[in-house]
C-alpha cells in the first residue's frame, strides 16, 4: 500500500483447538502453537508472513490460551475471547475494537495454521486484497486456485469482473478480481467436480475489509446481537453468549451481496494444516517434516518400511516399522494413538468434539 493509505492491521485468529489434528493437537497444546519440527510455531510463522505489510498485528485467542500465546507474540496486541464461538464472533470483535479507536485502517484477517510455500507471493496478494477492500468498501475474500477435486473446503463461485481502479495492475502484477456470485459449503465429490467447471475457488478463510464494512454487514446477520451488546456496553462475556458459534463466512459473507474474491494462484503453495491428510500433502515442503521416496511423511519419527507408501506417521522419538500398508495415518503421541485412512482423517475431529461435549 502507498504512503498515504490508511494503516494495514493484520488480525490472526488463533482460538481453535485443532481437533482434526488430534492427538498431536489437543486443547492444552492446539495446532497453532505447534512447531511441527520447525523453529517457530504455526502462529509465529503466520505473524512473520504478515510482518512485511502490517503496521500492526493483532492475535485473537481464548482466555485459556492467553499465557501460551503471549509468550510467542510479544510484539502483537492480544485480544481475548471469553469463550470460543468460531471465527464470526472473533472477527466482529476485532473489527469493533478497531472501530472504537476512531481511526481509519484496513484489516486483513487470516487463520493461524496455514502452510504457505512462497511467502512473498502470498503477502503481495494479501496486500492487494487490502487495497481492493479500501478502495471499494467491499468485503474481500481470497480464493485459492484449485489443484485437485476437494470436498474438505468450502467453494467460492466468482461472478463478474470487478470494475474500477482496484481491478487494474498493481506493483507489476494483475490480480484476477471478481464479484462473488455465490458460496458453496463443503461439497460432495460430484458437486466439487461440477464447481470446478464453473471456475470455483477454494475458500481459505482469508479476508480483507475495513472494520466499518464488516460491522455494517454484520448488523443484518445472526451476529447482530453480539454487536448490539458491545455497543450497549454489556460485558464481553454477555456479548459472546448472545450468539451461537458460527464462522464469519456463514455468519456474514454468505448473507451479503457486496463480496469480492481475489485469486490466490496455486503456485503460492497454500494448504490448510488442519488435518493429517494436509500434513501428508505438504510433505517435505513443510519445515520439520520428512518425506521418503515412497511418499511416507514423518515428523520426529524413525521410520522403517517394507512395501509401505503414502502414509503419514508421527510418533515423536519412537521407531515405527510399517509393512504392507498404504495411505494411512498413524499418530502416536504420549498415551494417545490414532490409526485412520488418510481419506477419512478429517473424521478424527468428530470423535474428539463428541468427547469434549459429552
Structure description:
There is one protein chain. A 5-stranded mixed beta barrel has the order 6-9-7-8-10. The protein has 2 domains: 8-272, Spore Coat Polysaccharide Biosynthesis Protein SpsA, Chain A; 276-357, no CATH class. It is an alpha/beta fold and 358 residues long. The chain contains 11 helices and 16 strands. The radius of gyration is 20 Å and the shape is globular. Helix 3 packs across helix 6. Helix content is 28%, strand content 28%. Strand 2, helix 2 (66-72) and strand 3 form a beta-alpha-beta unit.
Short description:
This protein is 28% helix and 28% strand.
Topology record:
Elements: E1 8-13, H1 42-50, E2 56-62, H2 66-72, E3 77-81, H3 87-100, E4 106-111, E5 114-116, H4 119-136, E6 139-144, E7 155-161, E8 177-184, H5 189-197, E9 201-209, H6 211-218, H7 224-231, H8 236-241, H9 248-251, E10 259-264, E11 270-272, H10 276-282, E12 290-291, E13 297-306, E14 312-323, E15 328-333, E16 336-341, H11 348-357
Parallel strand pairs: 1-2, 1-4, 2-3, 6-10, 13-14, 14-15
Antiparallel strand pairs: 4-9, 5-11, 6-9, 7-8, 7-9, 8-10, 12-13, 15-16
Helix pairs in contact: 3-6
User: How many independent structural domains?
Assistant: 2
Characterize the main sheet: 5 strands, mixed, barrel
Residue share in helix: 25-40%
Cα-based radius of gyration, to the nearest Å: 20 Å
The stretches of 5 or more residues where confidence is low (pLDDT under 50) are none
Fill in the keyword field for this structure.
358 residues; alpha/beta; Spore Coat Polysaccharide Biosynthesis Protein SpsA, Chain A; 11 helices
